[in-house]
């Protein structure tokens, strides 16, 4: 199949456990190699490809001595510790047989919540992509604890797609796309081929995993797509077993669901993506109704609109912004420490002249929740 389009794309492909495993639950070499062979064709055509691949637990649990996929955290982590190496070995062997090199990247949420580490990951991945390598990302299962988990590889893939400014996110699963209901439970469910807005009906239709090896189900795929949409990235969801699914998805000819990003104001730049999806807010400020309104309009926040400040934070920390009823309205990088803000809250811009930067939060460092239909943190 000739897939070359005028522009070479940067493509992130998420491969779920169910797309790599046999009916017994262990890794199917045949399935893995078929997908790698498609990626190789994309590479031959000049596209940059990054994989986010699950499968470590599936590849390792039998050698750990478990009959079924384990459910306890420690056993899953032990299985992943065995399986991650085996998984990478299978990928590497196949890519090398085609003359390409794969690299392994294991990430936890805490790696991304530090802005320097976030940038570092981005720089490293850019070097790999520039040199024609295929980075293969998975969650660093052996060291994550529930609290620090990305939660699943679906949202991880969307965050990685944002990190590397991907042109497209392709999520492969064991289902043909997003249906109006879980098709395994409702035979009347209809496939949605194009989605430009995640409506409450779509949220409701998204259910649990369909197989014993899947973890996120449609719920986490929708969360992932929302993150991609907010980052201005088109996504595709389709069935890994469908022939040439990746090649067809890239040219818009695959059976499945295409998700197209919404209006421009949702297209978060990398800094806002970091604030929205990765940062760990260190304090809270409560703002007046008028200030809330200007945040809704994505305007900078001035000390005059701040009513209360809580927590101890430094200049440059991310803080939660709440309205007078206690609802979170956004997140932003504070130009002042909590100590300074307590002193200057409520003060007008004229009176502030000598204290420091006028704005408490510049609008470039502001993420407004009403403009962002995405779960934060
Ligand atoms: N609205 C829906 N549309 C499609 N699939 C759905 C829906 N709701 C729930 N599902 C289930 O989600 C499953 C895919 O998620 P999951 O098992 O986690 O796969 P993976 O391992 O590929 O991440 C499907 O097999 C399907 O049974
Ligand atoms: N990191 C884990 C998988 C986590 C996960 O999201 O799995 P899946 O829902 O199959 O994509 C592993 O490699 O087994």
UniProtKB/TrEMBL annotation:
Pathway: Amino-acid biosynthesis; L-proline biosynthesis; L-glutamate 5-semialdehyde from L-glutamate: step 1/2. One of its GO terms (molecular function) is glutamate 5-kinase activity. Its main location: cytoplasm. It is an enzyme of class 2 (transferase). PROSITE patterns: PUA. Its EC number is 2.7.2.11. Substrate binds at residues 54, 141, 153. Keywords: Amino-acid biosynthesis, ATP-binding, Cytoplasm, Kinase, Nucleotide-binding, Proline biosynthesis, Transferase. Residues 283-356 form the PUA domain. It is found in: Cytoplasm. ATP binds at residues 14, 173-174, 215-221. The keyword Cytoplasm applies. It catalyses: L-glutamate + ATP = L-glutamyl 5-phosphate + ADP. InterPro entries: AceGlu_kinase-like_sf, Asp/Glu/Uridylate_kinase, G5K_ProB, Glu/AcGlu_kinase, Glu_5kinase, Glu_5kinase/COase_Synthase, PUA, PUA-like_sf. Catalyzes the transfer of a phosphate group to glutamate to form L-glutamate 5-phosphate. Belongs to the glutamate 5-kinase family. This is Glutamate 5-kinase. It comes from Fictibacillus nanhaiensis. The lineage of its organism: Bacteria, Bacillati, Bacillota, Bacilli, Bacillales. The gene is proB.
């Amino acid at each position: 199949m000739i897939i070359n389009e005028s522009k070479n794309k940067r493509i992130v492909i998420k491969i779920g456990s169910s797309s790599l495993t046999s009916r017994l639950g262990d890794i199917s070499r045949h399935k893995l190699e078929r997908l790698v062979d498609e990626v190789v064709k994309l590479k031959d055509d000049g596209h940059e490809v990054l994989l986010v691949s699950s499968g470590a637990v599936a590849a390792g649990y039998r050698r750990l001595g478990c009959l079924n996929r384990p459910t306890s955290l420690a056993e899953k982590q032990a299985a992943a510790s065995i399986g991650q190496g085996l998984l990478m070995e299978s990928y590497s062997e196949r890519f090398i047989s085609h003359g390409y090199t794969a690299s392994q990247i294991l990430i936890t949420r805490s790696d991304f919540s530090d802005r320097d580490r976030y940038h570092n990951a981005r720089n490293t991945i850019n070097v790999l992509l520039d040199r024609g390598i295929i980075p293969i990302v998975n969650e660093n299962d052996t060291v994550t604890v529930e609290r620090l988990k990305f939660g699943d590889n679906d949202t991880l893939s969307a965050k990685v797609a944002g990190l590397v400014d991907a042109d497209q996110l392709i999520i492969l699963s064991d289902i043909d796309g997003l249906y109006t209901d879980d098709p395994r439970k409702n035979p009347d469910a209809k496939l949605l081929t194009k989605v430009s807005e995640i409506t409450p009906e779509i949220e409701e239709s998204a259910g649990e995993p369909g197989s014993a090896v899947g973890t996120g189900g449609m719920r986490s795929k929708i969360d992932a797509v929302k993150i991609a949409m907010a980052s201005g990235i088109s996504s595709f969801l389709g069935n890994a077993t469908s022939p040439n699914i990746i090649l067809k998805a890239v040219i818009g000819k695959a059976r499945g669901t295409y998700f197209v990003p919404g209006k421009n104001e949702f297209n978060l730049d990398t800094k806002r993506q970091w604030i929205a999806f990765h940062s760990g807010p260190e304090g809270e400020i409560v703002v007046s109704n008028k200030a809330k309104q200007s945040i809704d309009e994505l305007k900078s926040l001035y000390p005059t609109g701040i009513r209360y400040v809580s927590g101890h934070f430094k200049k440059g920390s991310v803080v939660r912004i709440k309205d007078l009823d206690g609802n979170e309205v956004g997140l932003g990088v504070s130009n002042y420490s909590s100590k300074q803000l307590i002193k200057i809250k409520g003060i007008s811009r004229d009176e502030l002249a000598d204290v420091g930067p006028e704005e408490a939060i510049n609008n470039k460092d502001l993420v407004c929740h009403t403009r962002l239909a995405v779960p934060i943190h």
